[in-house]
Amino acid sequence: MLSAFEPDASGTGPKQVGYIPNLKLSDDHEIPLLAYGLGSARSKDEAEKIIQLAVMAIQNGYYHLDGAESYKNETELGIAIKKSGIDRSKLFVTTKLQSIHGDVSRSFAASLARLDLSYVDLYLIHAPFGASSPEHLQKVWAELEAIQASGRARSIGVSNFSVADLKAILQTARTPPVLNQVEFHPYLQHASDGLLPFCRENNIAVAAYGPLTAVTKAKPGPCDDIYAELAKKYGVEEGEVALRWCIDQGIVAITTSASEQRLKAYMNKLAAFKLTPKEIERISEEGKKKHFRGYWTKKFAADDKR
């Protein structure tokens, strides 16, 4: 087990190689550091594909499953869990509140019904966008706290929150968020507003969506050479280096793939090597030479460095 807030003697990462550890959250629950993110299921064909892929992921060891109300994949996730044959108690299930403007309790109850589960392991506010005031976010957070108190969500957190958003809810929170899920990769390290240091100082873990962006959407880029060098050194693919860069910093990496071979490779190879602190720093420093945001681009200014 790796604590999110107490790095090992090297200053980063899991304490041993040979497994992909869990992360201990501030509420003492544990979250697997590698997650499978479900895609959107907005049509019948997409829904059937999502179920097939999720079952395949679970049966290949991906027990941390990341869904969302807004991606219409909760029903499919629930079906996949049952089809997988894996006991619910072994799984870590995340879903997210789509809108901060409606009835939060009703939205959560509907999500739980679609999942056909009695509880989720983590419930997140998907985004703070459109909040009318800090008090608005505080009210929504209080409703998540009530959901957690009911036992239907073991942990609660947020997604796409800035430092200002986090400060707003921390002013009144009885239970602080355990995690902030954000787009995170070498070309989007959130350096300008100090998001990661703020999260660590306040015992808020970080989960990364889009962790493979530097080797997929954002090529070519300054990290290309070091990714290739390290992939050759460790006998892995560049994507595995990118995922390990997150994991070795105690950041949850959320990935998805339609390839069973690739998912198996991630699960097996990520457990077999670890980047050194110097290699992590080299990737970080090269990444700072380019800014790229792949998601929520309409919500942020073109020159936004968060």
UniProtKB/TrEMBL annotation:
The keyword Acetylation does not apply. Keywords: NADP, Oxidoreductase. Gene3D superfamilies: NADP-dependent oxidoreductase domain. Substrate binds at residue 126. PANTHER family: 2,5-DIKETO-D-GLUCONIC ACID REDUCTASE, NADP-DEPENDENT OXIDOREDUCTASE DOMAIN-CONTAINING PROTEIN. InterPro entries: AKR, AKR3C2/3, Aldo/ket_reductase_CS, NAD(P)_OxRdtase_dom_sf, NADP_OxRdtase_dom. GO terms for molecular function: oxidoreductase activity, acting on NAD(P)H as acceptor; oxidoreductase activity, acting on the CH-OH group of donors, NAD or NADP as acceptor. Signal peptide: none annotated. The record marks 96 as: Lowers pKa of active site Tyr. The active site is at residue 71. It comes from the Eukaryota. Residues 44-285 form the NADP-dependent oxidoreductase domain. This is NADP-dependent oxidoreductase domain-containing protein.
